[in-house]
Structures are given as structure tokens and as C-alpha cells.
Amino acid sequence: MVKQTGKGRYGEVWMGKLHGEKVAVKVFFTTEEASWLRETEIYQTVLLMHENILGFIVADIKCTGSLTELYLITDYHEHGSLYDYLQSTPLDPKAMLNLAYSSARGLCHLHTEIFGTQVKPAIAHRDLKSKNILVKKDGTCCIADLSLAVKWFSDKNGVDVPPETLVGTKRYMPPEVLDKSLNRNHFQSYLMADMYSFGLILWEVARRCVSEGIVEEYQLPYHDLVPTDPSCKDMWEIVCSKKLRPSLPSRWSTDECLRQMEKLITECWVHNPASRLTALRVKKTLAQMSESRAITI
């Protein structure tokens, strides 16, 4: 273990060395054994490996006398989370599309059931936010923190969901989670809940893209509408009762790339889950935007 790099509700994150290589070590509190087990199980899912999903190395339990430590060891990315990266890094359109497309690609892989000699289940993340997406050296992203994820195999009807109802980070909770109307037995509901949160992440990214020399400072979604640590009631009032969404900078309308991003964002966070774009549709749109940008340049 070299140095602590973060802290969360489940425990701590460290940068460590394994066989001389840098790795990230998530150390869970002993009270969080269920989260450790669940995340380990999700990471060991058949065919989950993908360049836009955080690379899993090993999970381990270390006992020293009366102390038990639960480890989850993964690839280390020195840029840290997308949240950290956006604070200090203004983006050009190419960098913005890189971050957005690679994140959508990871989410699409997670959401997709893959059939073959082995079957990868569809997986919903349930806690998507900029702090749970990491930025790699090449400016692409990978999705991390799968401790709240749920799996679904189409041949087994039913969703394997832990009993708690409100999960995730309140600021990123979709309306159907806040007003408790989400259909817990319908797997598609969880995928569409992820898409609302993903729309907020795209908004965070797009604000940091420079157009005509202008760029907004980094802010969390709803920064101007709710307290720093909002309650479910605060979020319900803004998102469900007033049906408000983060404001869209007026400069976006004069930039072709940001105008397309705005359309994508608003189609992800619409109130009705059935009307939201799927991860595959977002991925394809962002790929087209990147291609047309390359052609114009």
C-alpha cells in the first residue's frame, strides 16, 4: 500500500504496488462485507472484461489478529475520476467526445446481454456518477464501482436485486427512484434509471467544452438548486415535483457539436423512463458525432 487516494461510504481507496506495477486497492469496512462480495461477484461475471470497464485484478481478505480487511484490487488510473479530471481540465470538442463516447461504450457493454458458448448477463449499474467513472491516460473512460449493480439473465425471469429500495447517490437519482414508482421486477426499469444518471454526467462533461473561448467552471448537476448534501426530499422536490433539470448554457445553441450534445442530454434525462435513449443509441450517436467531426477537420 503506497498512499490513500480516496474515501467513500464503503471504505477507502489506496494506490498500491503489486509485482512492481501500480494498482488501485479498495479497502472495505468489515461492516460492508456484502458490498465487497457483491462487487467481487459482478467483476467476475463471464465476459465482463472490456476496455471501458475498470479492469479487475483480484479480491482478497486479509486477517491480522482482530482486524479483517476486505480488498478489491483493480487497474490504477492516475487521472482519477471523471469528477476530479473535469475540475482541472477544460476540453476541446475531440476530448469531450472521447470522454463521452468511451463512457457510453462501457455502459453499453454493461447493459448488454451477450449470448455464446458462455452468456454474459445484462447488468445495470445503479450508482452512475462522475465519481464512479475513471479517466485513463489516453483520455478515454472506464466505468467503476459495481457494488450496487444488478444482473439479469433473460432465461431466468426475475431480477436479482438486494432488498433496499433507495440506492445510489441522491443527486443522481432518477424521478422514478425518488418517487418510489420504479418497477423493481422489470429489469428494463434499472437500465432506464442508469440512462437518466448518464444524461447528468454528459451535462457535466459538455459544460467543460470550450466554444468561442468560453467555458463554464465545473459544477455538479443541480448545484444551484439543492444543498451540497441534498436529502431525498430536496431532490424529489426539484426533479419530480417541479420537474426541473440542470440549466443548459445558451452558448451551446451556437456550436454544432454542443447543440447535438444538448439534444442527447435532454433525451437521456426525460421524466418518462420509457422515452429515454438506450446506452446503445447514445453510443451510436456519439460515434457518428466523432466521425463527422473527423471528416470536417
What report would you give on this structure?
With about 300 residues, this protein is of the alpha+beta class. It has 2 domains: about 5-75, Phosphorylase Kinase, domain 1 (2-Layer Sandwich), CATH 3.30.200; about 80-295, Transferase(Phosphotransferase), domain 1 (Orthogonal Bundle), CATH 1.10.510.10. It is about 35% helix and about 15% strand. A 5-stranded antiparallel beta sheet has the order 1-2-3-5-4, covered by helices on one side. A two-stranded antiparallel ribbon has the order 6-9. A two-stranded antiparallel ribbon has the order 7-8. It is globular. The mean pLDDT is about 95. Belongs to the protein kinase superfamily. TKL Ser/Thr protein kinase family. TGFB receptor subfamily. Keywords: ATP-binding, Kinase, Magnesium, Manganese, Membrane, Metal-binding, Nucleotide-binding, Receptor, Serine/threonine-protein kinase, Signal, Transferase, Transmembrane, Transmembrane helix. InterPro entries: Kinase-like_dom_sf (IPR011009), Prot_kinase_dom (IPR000719), Ser-Thr/Tyr_kinase_cat_dom (IPR001245), Ser/Thr_kinase_AS (IPR008271), TGFB_receptor (IPR000333).
